[in-house]
Amino acid sequence: MIEIIREERAKHGMERIVRVRVVNGALSGAVSDALAFGWECMTQEGEFKGVALDIEDAPLRVACGACGKEFEPEDNSYMPCPTCQEILGHDILSGKELYIEEIEADVPGDTDEAAASGSASCPRP
Amino acid sequence: MSKTVTIVRNVLEANERRAASLKDYFDGNKILCLNLMSSPGAGKTSLLERTLADLKGEFKMAVIEGDLQTDNDARRVAATGAQAVQVNTEGGCHLDSSMIQDAIAVLDMQGLDILFIENVGNLVCPAEFNLGEDHKVSILSVAEGDDKPEKYPLMFHLSSVMLLNKTDLLPYVDFSLEAASAHARKLNKDIEIFPVACRTQEGLEPWYAWLRTARAGKR
Question: Which of A40, B43, B63, B110 has a CA-to-CA distance to B167 between 20 and 30 Å?
Fold first, then answer.
């Protein structure tokens, strides 16, 4: 994560990073609480000190192996189809993902930002 | 004032990139690569010992052994005559694709038919890290309980094969082959399931038949 954030910081000319938003699927294998704790440890000091981490837990979403009905099982172990009650052979549609969705940061000279703050008319060197 | 920049990048993308280049390498050299995963003690090394001994006349095989410490397993596997390289993760709970790149650099890959990767004993993290393999193979021993595929869904979802090992212990444990199979098929309708007993060498032939078919698919 740190490597990706460094790359994106350089690419977009970010200065202070405020917040990183991560999407963690129910079946990704990564535990959100552990991720949050690890992030807290990593951001005590150094270049990312104080940067917030928002974790969005994405549910498991499957298509029934018998009738194709798309649904989100209430738990990951017993997952009967709400339409036909089938419990076997469901296809996973989403829930395995683990990705950085967005980074909130100060980006100097950004046109949208400049317009919003009323400084669009300032001459640029 | 700050601005939000949309990124959408897989946290494990560095591993995925290396795994893709390993997959190209295995495909280009027509090597069948299998990633063996289980909890500690389920019988990965025993399965390899039997498989390497029984099929050594048919295939040229090599093994990458992943463990936290020691080279005990690599020595067991090497005793069958197969090439083996030990990767010690020094506390790491899974293998990643950079470790596989390092390991194949020291193996003689010339003319290899099958490369087995014995992952670190763990039902969670190994499933998250692709190693460029053709198939993931999970091993569950009957002493562990038949609800393991339900508790660790990702590993069994991603596996092409589940071996149910130590069936010689079935009279002594409360383990249902049917229940374990049903749990694994919830999120993996195509998984191949082979009950085996490595100790007594029972039930191995269907596993060998699967290996031969998978191997033939790489030519």
Answer: B63
